[in-house]
Amino acid sequence: MSTLIRRDFETVAPTEADTRLAQESSRVLAGRKFGKRSSVRLCLGEGADAEPVVVPASAVRMLFHLLKEMSLGNAVTLIPTHAELTTQQAADLLNVSRPYVVKLLEEGKIPCRTVGTFRRIRFDDLMDYKQKDDAVRKAILDELTALDQEVGLWN
Fold this sequence. Notes:
The chain is of the alpha+beta class. It contains 5 helices and 7 strands, in the order βαββαββααββα.
């Protein structure tokens, strides 16, 4: 179980009981069709104490994904896209070293701002970089695979 970010954001590391409950509840949600609904009515509590709550359908879809991760025993952190991360938090998310992230910032590959002597990286800017980097890696892998097939290494 790994924790991505601790500072400023709450990370939920599921217990065994949480994992089992997340498995059950994600199965129930998986069986529901929310389609193009804009909202979903949930009931909190049971019996006479049950209180209906209407939430955006997009929030229920996000809850489903959160429960799926917890059902696998994965720690989960909810990070707003506008959140600013430290270089260490960004490195943890990219699974690289902090000096490598600093190098990317200095090269202008990821935008950042400076607060005093510290750099801050917007989460959405970091994810934009990651998406582009992943696309470049995939293209290179596809090219290598094509070359391997051309040479006859793969049948």
